[in-house]
Amino acid sequence: MKYLQIKNLRKSFGNLEVIKDISLDVEEGQVVAVIGPSGSGKSTLLRCATLLETMDSGELIYLGEHAVRTDADGKAVYAHARKLRQIQRYYGLVFQNFNLFPHYSVIKNVTDALITVQRKSRAEALEIGRELLRKMSLSDKENAYPYQLSGGQQQRVSIARALALNPKVLFFDEPTSALDPELTGEILKVIRDLAAERMTMVIVTHEMSFARDVADHIIFMDEGVIVEEGPPEKVINNPQNERTRAFLSRFER
Amino acid sequence: MKLEVLLLKLSEGMLVSVEIFTLTLLFSLPLGLFVAFGRMSKNPLLRNIIKIYISIMRGTPLILQLMVVYFGPYYIFGLPTPHRFLAVIIGFVLNYAAYFAEIYRAGIESMPLGQYEAAKVLGYNKTQTFIKIILPQVIKRILPPVTNEVITLVKDTSLAFVISVPEMFTAAKAIASAQASMLPFVGAGIFYYIFNYIVAFVMEWVEKKFSYFR
């Protein structure tokens, strides 16, 4: 089943067109990595898909349900607020700089949306939260506050927070860019484990070797378009396009 | 005049000062939040009206504003003059709400966008986001400037003398001129100092309450 479909997405900031007609599908269980130079539009793509940014035209469909359609004039038309809230449950997002709630303890960061948004009981939310913290090897940090944690731990809390709501698709926006190499490793391991559990994920990343190892499908973006896409062995090991080659030449294969 | 009588008179005035202080905070702290929302509103008419209001409140002396509130109704509109104490409270609340609004606005606007985005993606609605996620962090950030304003307010209560509300400074001044003595002023000074010492102590305690996160 197609968990996410993006069709002919266009987005401009003023006169600058940052995304020029991008379409992509994400199948259930698929791990898609989006790579490309800074300013290529990959973060904007992800922000449009998570409704943090409004698209100018195109379609956005989660599990067959339209969040955004395009009208006859080619303008994006968003679904009603209630429909959007319902669709919002299908995905989660892990930010580059975590965006944990600093005034909430680790466990409250993970469980509060379950209680406030999904109206689950405290006990049920705690059970889900503790299970996820155990999975993220953070059980001993349950009552700590974000400032007391390392960057890697904070990012693991934010992954647990996103997973708590049981999303169908999990987005990662450069999840390791704010971390040093050692901490990067622990986050990549968590994402690898999720991939092994067949979690559907879309990952914007600069970690080429990681993208190659974990993704089923790589999308290379530059200047707002998909330059090249396909399985990792093709895109990373044997790129056809000149720009992809130039970009990847700076990384060790 | 005996010292006991002096202290008694001063404490009567002090009581009025405390009343002005308490009522002003009680109304201006919440009112300031609504003023801040108006100031940040997307509606340009509302936003500009609030901007002008804040500009006048900050740009003219409070002592003048008190006189306008008290004398204005009669001299401008021919209406009956309001009760003195009521006029003082209205004047103080309007003035302090403007200052608090700007403090709130600074606090709210200093919040990183990522907090709103994280809340949005998790499904919090706008009210939940503001009450649960933004407000507690804003309160922590604005405590120091709010403390400054509250301390200023303690001293500003003395301005009520301009429309003859018998707060402590009015009392001290009356006794001082009747007795040709500096002592009432010294007493008043000590009163204000102790009052503010308590305010600072309480605010420090509140700040400590918020120190569990960063």
Describe this structure as you would to a colleague.
The complex is a heterodimer of chains A (253) and B (214). In chain A, strands 7-8-9-3-10-11 form a 6-stranded mixed β-sheet, sandwiched between helices. A 5-stranded antiparallel β-sheet of chain A has the order 2-1-4-5-6. In chain A, β5 and β6 form a beta hairpin. Chain A has 9 helices and 11 strands. Chain A has a domain of 65 residues. By secondary structure, chain A is α/β, with parallel strands linked by helices. Chain B has one domain: Orthogonal Bundle (MetI-like fold), CATH 1.10.3720.10. Classes of the chains: A alpha/beta (253), B mainly alpha (214). At the A-B interface, β7 and α3 of A face α5 and α6 of B.
TL;DR of this structure?
The complex is a heterodimer of chains A (253) and B (214). Chain A is of the alpha/beta class and 253 residues long. Chain A has helices spanning 42-49, 81-88, 106-116, 122-135, 151-164, 181-196, 208-214, 232-235, 242-248, and strands spanning 2-13, 16-27, 31-35, 57-62, 65-70, 76-78, 91-94, 169-173, 200-204, 217-222, 225-230.
Write the layout of secondary structure elements.
The complex is a heterodimer of chains A (253) and B (214).
Chain A: E1 2-13, E2 16-27, E3 31-35, H1 42-49, E4 57-62, E5 65-70, E6 76-78, H2 81-88, E7 91-94, H3 106-116, H4 122-135, H5 151-164, E8 169-173, H6 181-196, E9 200-204, H7 208-214, E10 217-222, E11 225-230, H8 232-235, H9 242-248
Parallel strand pairs in A: 3-9, 3-10, 7-8, 8-9
Antiparallel strand pairs in A: 1-2, 1-4, 4-5, 5-6, 10-11
Chain B: H1 3-39, H2 44-59, H3 62-77, H4 84-109, H5 113-122, H6 126-156, H7 168-179, H8 183-209
Helix pairs in contact in B: 1-2, 1-4, 1-7, 1-8, 2-4, 3-4, 4-6, 5-6, 6-8, 7-8
